[in-house]
Amino acid sequence: MYDWQDPGPPAENEIRTRTLYSGITNGTERNELLRGNYSRKDHELPVTGGYQNVGEVIEVDSGVRDLALGDLVYMSQSHLEFCLEPDHRLHIKLPAEIEPVEAALFGVAGVAMRCCRNADLRIGDRMLVVGAGIVGQLVTQIAASTGACVTLCDIDERRLEIAEAIGAADEIVNVDSDGWDKHISEGGFDVVLDAAGVPDMEDKLITAAKKHGTVMFIAGRFKVEYTFNRGQRHEITIKQNSHFDNSDLYHMCRLVSKGMIRIAPLIQDVVPVSEANGVYDTLRDEPRKLLGTVFDWR
Question: In sequence order, what DSSP letters do the residues of 43-85 get, joined into one string?
Answer without folding.
Answer: GG-S----S-EEEEEEEE-TT--S--TT-EEEES--S-SEEEE
